[in-house]
Predict the 3D structure of the following.
Amino acid sequence: MSKTVAGNFFEDFSLGQKIVHATPRTLGDGDRALYTALYGSRFAVQSSDEFAKAIGYPTSPMDDLLVFNTVFGKTVPDISLNAIANLGYAECVFTNPVYSGDTLSARSEVIGLKENSNGKTGTVYVRSKGNNQRGEEVLSFVRWVMVRKRDEKSAAPAAVVPELSKVASIKAGMPRLNIVKWDFAQSGSPHRFDDYAVGEKIDHLDGMTVEEAEHQLATRLYQNTARVHFNQFAEQGGRFVRRLIYGGHVISLARALSFNGLANAFHIAGINGGRHVAPLFAGGSVFAWSEIVDKTVHGDVGALRITTRATRDLPCTDYPIEDGTAEKPGVILELDYWALIPR
Amino acid sequence: MSKTVAGNFFEDFSLGQKIVHATPRTLGDGDRALYTALYGSRFAVQSSDEFAKAIGYPTSPMDDLLVFNTVFGKTVPDISLNAIANLGYAECVFTNPVYSGDTLSARSEVIGLKENSNGKTGTVYVRSKGNNQRGEEVLSFVRWVMVRKRDEKSAAPAAVVPELSKVASIKAGMPRLNIVKWDFAQSGSPHRFDDYAVGEKIDHLDGMTVEEAEHQLATRLYQNTARVHFNQFAEQGGRFVRRLIYGGHVISLARALSFNGLANAFHIAGINGGRHVAPLFAGGSVFAWSEIVDKTVHGDVGALRITTRATRDLPCTDYPIEDGTAEKPGVILELDYWALIPR
Amino acid sequence: MSKTVAGNFFEDFSLGQKIVHATPRTLGDGDRALYTALYGSRFAVQSSDEFAKAIGYPTSPMDDLLVFNTVFGKTVPDISLNAIANLGYAECVFTNPVYSGDTLSARSEVIGLKENSNGKTGTVYVRSKGNNQRGEEVLSFVRWVMVRKRDEKSAAPAAVVPELSKVASIKAGMPRLNIVKWDFAQSGSPHRFDDYAVGEKIDHLDGMTVEEAEHQLATRLYQNTARVHFNQFAEQGGRFVRRLIYGGHVISLARALSFNGLANAFHIAGINGGRHVAPLFAGGSVFAWSEIVDKTVHGDVGALRITTRATRDLPCTDYPIEDGTAEKPGVILELDYWALIPR
């Protein structure tokens, strides 16, 4: 039995298979600071213990996407080390807040398998869950990845494609807050739930150029071991000739950029769906724009359903959407999520 | 009303105007570690809880310039997003130490306005203050910036230029210390107050090359949103063709380099004045030298008034001063400050 | 007396000389997070407070090599600022674990001196020790460096070359653990002491490309002031034309890569010897492989004696060893150490 992990191939997955992922990870003040340094995020709840306490959190919670990226990272060695592509996300719910000192671990279940018609690859669907040290679930999400077969001649399993909700059910993940204490001067914007209209489009204006050192630091912080992000020696002979930037880095950048326009959208309650439409490489500048696609009320807070698109080397003045030209400047990410905002 | 912040123009400021800045920020152990990693600072008080406690601090305080950069960063979206230049600093006093877990917020008052003769820009003078979660002031400083007018035809306000002290009054910011417990072996130098003479010049010897990833990480850590530091896509068509490095990054580098020669100058009590004489870009190597320009005694400690000059791609063997040639290697920063040192 | 430190030359060292190094340093959660971001280490004991507590640690200890690099960094201004080469390490023992909040300081004793036959340089042998705030030793190691003479004409001291053990005595540094609580699913591998055979070779598969910003951040985090790592302006006229990457950065990278194959080798108890065989520069991709060279039992745990070799731009499929061609892709590090692993 080999001592090293070379990753699972399509044949290694079976429907209903349950996987416990290594390595448990205690998140702390250092992770919070690094997350700020990597993305420049300014949402007040995640930035200030005092602001968070005023509205009912015991202390400032970790950024939702730091939690997402940490749990995602744990699943990589078992799920996607041999993945050709991360095809999509669905049914992602942030079930409980994570605080400094909490230890996260992750497990997954295979919920779908479908070999591709070329006989060389297949799609694996997994539901992954992150838990804290008390066994409480903090995050649950489905993702599906295209994985190579070890042997093209091996028989295809019965195709099972899970039915996935188009909209994440976010009720389980709603924090109980004393939202009347929200300080709109400190939070950076006067705009609340009622100020946003379905169909409204917001160009987040700012752009951020990504360096190799930055995405590598981030991806290692998440203990994500996918090789395409780190090994220029190998990648220079590969499809892109360069290291590919981890998609979660793009999601975190887009969310941080969205502060300018969505400053009070303080918590990602759930992600309905997400797609990495085109790759990002170091030297590319990321812009973002958002569209409000739905609104619902949850007690004291409102939830905005938002589609945020990130672009590469393309300002978002004209609200660009995917046009299928991955080689040109254009959209690289579409993320459909629920964000909570004071009413 | 636009959801996004595009920054204030000269016409948007009025004399006496008070501004509450977003976003409050809790500083912690992670910020301390990142600050060390970004600048390699080695001052013992800020590096060691034990050293700090021995001389009377409750624990190791945050580096003064981490506090400065954090408060400064908060003022950017309101004050200098459309600034053409940071013209100067004055009357900067560090009023109370900041510790891990403290939450900083910032506010400013407009204390001067003067339109430039070209009718296109004006100078805005603001006094900014940082406070901790108990409402105690931790930092106060004046800065003035050249800001674009929105409309060249708009009328000029009455010109008001504040009278600013040439020397910061640092008494309010003096910590009470048991300085006899200072350990000169651990601090890295035997040199104390009496060993420094007015007029003495010190070449700090070492040079530090700055990478894009480093200044971007730093500037985001401070939640400073000034676009010129982050967006290569926009800057490649701009005046410098490159991203401009945040001036506070240069100040922090110069201070860290000054350890070699000023190892016991443990606390910046105040900044009398500062000017960013020329820009710095990634790939540039920063050197520094200092001149002792005054000395005063404050109880157990002495205060050295120091002018530290940072240079770009120019060793400081010959103690270079500004010669007005921003395109060549040369001085990029002049910083005139009070540093405390054991007597 | 000059205020600045230009480093000691060969003549400045005397046999039996004792040196107290500056600057004491409190390690915290931020250092832990940065270490993870810099190397992507995934060993469960250092990653998770819960995992560490389950087997008997009071909380997750700091990575052994973060401790090593921190103590090493302190010795640089006194020992190796004028070093031409770090020649080797021996008798390195990790005597006590280090936890978040501990403050480390360092001191050294000169245990050997030998002028080289060219009369221009000499080798200095020092034993360095790191202590925590309670005065307990956390680390002890010998290293020897080639240092320039200030004056080629100065007389050579009597040559004293210490006798150094080929194998570090690790008993003093053994933690008492409740190793039956080890969770092999969470740790990332089922392989324990008995699964490894003397003579076994493991290619760790993965490669990691190093950026300038990364090694500079790391080396500053360790407060290591060796100029060759930071100053491109000076180095462009030097032997390598580029900044040289700190050897401890390579050791930490190799150890992190070795997780894939040695996931349960949770603690470096001691380093028997180490050599930096060839330099590493930014842009280089680091690979690693390990050979099991000995095994011993220490109560509940086993100790594997491992030689890990790191390479530059050379995958380790064929288990390369040094071939003396520093200019080509090849081995850059040989590290001979004891790692503890559950039986």
